[in-house]
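Internal ticket #5521
Category: modeling
Description: The requester needs a full-assembly model to guide mutagenesis choices. All entity lines are attached below as received. Residue total reported by intake: 995.
Assigned to: D.W.
Attached entities:
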Amino acid sequence: MIMLWHNISWQAMPVLLPLVGAMLCFLLPQRIKFLGLMIALAIAASVFALLLQVLDEGVLRYSVGGWGAPLGIDLYTDGLSLLMLLMTALVGLGISIYAIAYFKSDKAVHFWPLWMLLWAALNALFLSADLFNLYVTLELLGLSAVALVALAGGANALGAAMRYLFVSLLGSLFYLLGLALLYHSFATVDIALLAQRIEETPAVWAAMGLMSAGLLLKTALFPLHFWLPPAHANAPAPVSALLSALVVKASFYILLRLWLDVFPPTNSMLVQFLGLLGACAVLWGGLQALRQTRLKMLIAYSTVAQLGYLFIAFPLATGMAWKGSLYLLISHALAKSAMFLAAGNLLRFGGHDRITQLDRVAQRLPLTLAAFALAGVSIMGLPPSGGFIGKWLLLDVALRSGQWWWAVILMLGSLLAAAYIFKVIGHAFTQAEVAHEAIEVSKMMEWSAFLLALAAIVLGLVSPWPLALMDIGSPFNTALSATCTSGVAQ
Amino acid sequence: MHFGRRAMNWNALLPLFILASSLLPGLVIFFLPEDRVRTRITLNMAGAIIKVVLVGFVLWGVYIGQHYETRLPFLPGLDLVLRADALSILFITLSTILWLVTTIYAIGYLEDSPHRSRFFGFFSLCVTATVGVALAGNLLTFVLFYELLTLATYPLIVHRGTEEARHAGRTYLTYTIIGGALLLIGTVWLYGLTGTLEFTHRGFLAELVSTQHNALIIIFILLIAGLGVKAALVPFHGWLPQAMIAPAPVSALLHAVAVVKAGAFGIVRVVYDVYGIEFADSLGVTLPLAIMAAVTIIYGSVRALFQDDLKRRLAFSTVSQVSYIALGVALVGPIATIGGLVHLVHQGVMKITLFFCAGNLAETLGIHKVSQMDGVGRRMPWTMAAFTIGAFGMMGAPPIAGFVSKWYLGLGALDAGQDWVIFILAGSSLLNAAYFLPVLHRAWFKEAVADWPTDHHFGRRETAWALLFPPLFTAFLSLTLGLLASMPFSPLVWARFITTLEYAP
């Protein structure tokens, strides 16, 4: 038995299970909710098994069908990919439980197969060892996400989905062009091989520009964020949650891999530029969030701001800064999914999400408000929360290296976040004159939002574990980190 | 040997238990339905009493030289540290005893009002955060609980759910969140320079090379600004009078125990255990702090003169009084330190008495303004007697506790060669008299009006028992702390004990 356990490579499971799940959900629509939950649990369990395996054996590399690079498909798991998988599993499980209660059967039939497909794409993306696989999974991810946005129906949702589709395709196209350039120059798409062969040629610079631009568009980094708020705000609550928590992170993950492993160490102008865009995103997203009158739009703009934080690690570029950025990414995934799910509860309960009329929610849906508030603590970066740990690490690096202006941006972002989050909470505590017809909200929906928010808080108390996981395979110990720190030291 | 190990383990857990004694009941209370009054009261009182017992035990332990320290890994190279040292004992004893009293008061005050589970839940969280601030063994832990305190008090301030309360809450957050951000930046920066944040007697910065002194001065400004917001130092005091919108027990707790005290306590920690008083003096940052405190003392008193709203008058009085602590700390000298530290306790006990009384007037007779208080001493003699003791204490009249603080502050100022402080203290006492004596005169010597705004009757007593006992108890305490100031375990003796640790050669 133990032998068997060790012989299984758990790497393929997180991809296979949701694919099988998608087919089953499609074939057996009458049992769809039960099936969905079971498969979600199975995926989470397989990721957990993979975690144990990686803890036991270190970095894993698995050739699907035994072909191996550069011919076959390789799966690669280090600390970075593992954390992304774990994050997806946790958030995915929460969203799945929520979705069981949220969707009536007519919508559920469409939701579950698409969601499973999306989950498979995400997991495959985080496990991919070559750039072409990344492209395929990115495309699959984009298409299933677009279909999910359209699920809400209505002119707004369809318009947003259409815009999302164009952006998604455009982003992938840029990526593919860059990929073709790289393949033409070095005759491989394997990340490890490319890292060895890469040279500083014009073609590589062009590829770098194209692929980065495409991925930045998909990650919705300011000023390429225009498509995100309508797409995320108009989708059904569980879809908003998984878009904001997971999908935008996937393209950021590829970007991170490319910059850390593949692209040659660049002059610091480019990384400074990325940091600058990130800073603009933090400020602009925060200000826009503050201006919104609808809760879901507010949360969507908050995502724009929070994505900006991730890019502040580029100019800082030490191992600690990358870890801080990754910590923020994971905390944001948990907190933001909780927030969108909580917003879904409020929307269902009151029939609207106008912030100034959120009265009487604190009394009637205390658990949902608590979920929103706890998630808010992490988004603001107050202790103890995952957001705080990430922000602390970034602040520490910024101040130590004398780049205090990034610290100022981080703090301003926190202040803006506090302003827009307490704008909501303040109104929820205030009683207005008119009562409205309330629709019962399922306990399952309340608890899944609450537990996700709680996880974002707990993440702030267990930081030694995730930080230790990030060291497996030392994904952040790369040329880019080295050159940039030495550049700063001078 | 075996026994020794076990004792070590208990000592490592006690600070955690002290936190849990208010945290766990608070968390349970959140989930209680409104009508479970008895369960809620039991939980509240049990938590408060257990905390008193635990703190009493730790107080004795610290006195006989035991070490109580909990360490949990938190960030790379930085632990969460809860440690009971002499200074934390001073603050934690104050907050624990006053929490017990305020809980009784709040139970009486909020009888039959809505959202009590929410209220008492956050009330317990608020005390947990305060105790955490007191027990914090390094600056990071301090920041954590300091921010938690901000978050836990916000729902209490907006508790009434009115538009006015929402605005007060927003003002409060604007000040405290910005203050928290400054504190955080200062903390991270300090960590970058030193690689440690552990509170140490006489500070841990003196070894740094002199090229970093400018950075240390800026960090000092950042930290004091962040802490000054909660301590209501002018010009960061704007939130405090507005926060008066909160229910009386919250105001009592905010002013005497939790928020303003956390700020003042933080200033004490930063000056003594981060910078070290001598090093801070050599950086030249103590005199500006003393001047800032002095300005606050006078400004608060002057503003208090012109407030007709009783709670607002008390609020400005707090602005003024809390700065005595900062003043005592910033005057570099052991005697002034004793004065400042002991005032941390004395101001708390006296000010909570005044707020309890103001709450009683509002709750029993609907009196909110000074101008409505004519003759109220005859209707509510016990409440007003307690108020009188508190007010005289604030003016610094012997033998009430406030006198002891002012005496040591005055002596300490002369000892430190800062004679100008005497004028500040005398001026402040005169101003205190100018805004408290008219209130007392109205209450005791003026003819009562025919009917009060709203008159509740409580049989033979002047008001509900749960509302009357707390102010009487704290008034008695203010008197005893002054009369028996030299008894063992009195705040004064304890403050001397701390001072010898900070100044011993």
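Resolution: model delivered.
Comment from assignee: The CA atoms of residues 257 and 408 of chain B lie 22 Å apart.
Ticket closed.
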